């Protein structure tokens, strides 16, 4: 009997000893776990370091069995960043960040949100105008499987059960930042090249502006339209085969401001080739062509759809009359060709040169079976003289899709707006159409 009592007393002693040891370990762990265990709050906006204005972190204790909470409520103080000359100040998050929420309001305008969302959405946000803004930013570090809505906001110094969602456990929580700034941006122009040959294309990037107003372009090289790009706006300027050699001024008007730049066009010898006169056109064919085709020249530009090199519409061909060549008929010169005439293997597939939307698929009295594909940014491919057509207007096609079959010849013409450009740089991924491709 005495032996049993001794064993029980020994067990109680062991339990008490373990409890005391665990308590000591917990007390030591609690005591030595400080706010220094939180991650570095480094975040930047427009290149300026942001100051923390509120935080809540849960730091693991005892191998991640429990969490010690550190809570600092946000205050009314707002960091002043001053004037930023970038139309879209970059937001840089700490490496440990798993998510972030940003709210932007007009400074002094209360809760009238200009932007409210995550950082991926901020990448496409346009500030409506130059002016003063206020921002609230919350940056989170959470284990996989936990969202900000699942996070527990404890009182300062509270001990919580660890969520147990990661091993080894790390600090979970967020920092909050409050700051105001002034946007004072001005548009900037950049050409892909300051000189291009006749038949070539230059890209023009318009960046650094605020607002969603589309820039207006004026140049004697043709009708040019802008589309959105990652940097702001992008347009493509053609130098047709007959564009005058020398300097050409380009005027860009945006937000009431007009900027100018200059593009130099250099002459190119396209050579000459024997050509046959066009067959007589049926009555009304000219008017039909103008109504169907010319109406496309000033149509609203779609977003860019092509990616990488274009395909020649025919895999097997011989060039009978090339773009820009002077046509020679019965020994006399008869003007330059704005298109390329290919001799083909009858029955071969006619391929879509690049991704796009079919905007014309019909028989025209002047050009026979005709397919026109809009590739975006005002660039369209015109394919004339097909034996038959396999697509319909409004249909989306991918690069290489068969749009019809060829007879003995096929005429291809690539235009930016109303100006024809050389097709060969398109097939070789060269020129302004592939500059900083997005």
What would your notes on this structure say?
- The chain is 11% helix and 43% strand.
- With 438 residues, the chain is mainly β.
- It folds into three domains: 38-183, no CATH class; 188-266, Immunoglobulin-like (Sandwich); 272-434, Glucose Permease (Domain IIA) (Distorted Sandwich).
- Strands 21, 24, 25, 26, 27, 28, 29, 30 and 31 form a nine-stranded antiparallel sheet that branches.
- Residues 17-35 have low confidence and may be disordered.
Broad CATH class of the largest domain: Mainly Beta
CATH superfamily of the largest domain: Glucose Permease (Domain IIA)
Question: How many discrete domains?
Answer: 3
Say what the CATH topology of the largest domain is. Glucose Permease (Domain IIA)
What fraction, in percent, of the residue positions are helical?
10-25%
Rounded to the nearest angstrom, the distance between the terminal CA atoms is 87 Å
Mean pLDDT: 90
Inertia-based shape: elongated
CATH architecture of the largest domain: Distorted Sandwich
Report Rg. 34 Å
Topology, please?
Blueprint: H1 2-32, E1 44-45, E2 48-49, E3 52-61, E4 66-72, E5 79-84, E6 91-92, E7 99-106, E8 113-118, H2 119-122, E9 131-141, E10 159-161, E11 172-183, E12 188-191, E13 195-197, E14 201-207, E15 216-218, E16 227-229, E17 232-238, E18 246-254, E19 257-266, E20 272-274, H3 285-292, E21 317-321, E22 326-329, E23 332-336, E24 340-344, E25 349-351, E26 356-364, E27 368-376, E28 379-389, E29 396-397, E30 402-416, E31 419-421, H4 424-427
